[in-house]
Amino acid sequence: MTTRRRFTGAFKAKVALEALRGDKTIQEIATRHKGAPQPGQHLEAPGDGRSGRGVFQWCRQGPCGSCRRGPRPPRQDRSADGGAGFFVQRAQAMSRNERKAMIRRDCPGLSLSRQCALLSISRSSFYYAAKVESAGNLAMMRRIDELFLKYPFYGSRQMVRQLRREGVYIGRHRVRRLMD
């Protein structure tokens, strides 16, 4: 009896990206990743409307002519394009930073727009670089932290009153943002 193989999300995403590039057939990808079909079975494309139980789905009904995808001549390889549904579902399980790290600028098969769409990341957030806080804000944050250690029950309104007593005039909304 063989044990069931378990694949990580990163491995599944890597295989799905390979399939979406379209430079290899599904059979070649399956063979490379040791997922070759049993005799009398053929490989169904990821994201073809079936539930995503594994990296690849095998047609268990016999040769290609009897499956619900329609008659196909046996042993005919087909390209692995169009498997977006499977890939998007698997990518959603990953964190946003992991998905951003998967995008390659120099990928010849997939444009940057398509990669962002598949990973559910807007292009603007892919290009976004967070601003660094100014020196004045950092000094204000340090002072707020000192006061908060002394008065841990102060909210933004009481913190503003305390700062104004010290001669620092600052708005409540700014204090609230700096306290977060």
Summarize the structure.
With 180 residues, the chain is an all-alpha fold. The protein has helices at 9-21, 26-32, 84-92, 96-102, 112-118, 123-127, 135-150, 156-165, 172-179; strands at residues 43-44, 57-58.
Low-confidence stretches: 36-58, 60-67
Could you report the average pLDDT, rounded to the nearest whole number? 75
Number of domains: 2
The biggest beta sheet reads:
2 strands, antiparallel
Question: What is the alpha-carbon Rg in Å?
Answer: 27 Å
Task: Provide the structure class.
Answer: mainly alpha
Describe the strand arrangement of the main beta sheet, using strand numbers. 1-2
**Proportion in β-strands:** under 5%
Assign a percent range to the helix content: 40-55%
* Topology as a string of helices (H) and strands (E): HHEEHHHHHHH
Query: Terminal Cα separation, in Å?
Result: 55 Å
Identify the overall geometry.
elongated
* Count of extended strands: 2
Specify the number of helices: 9
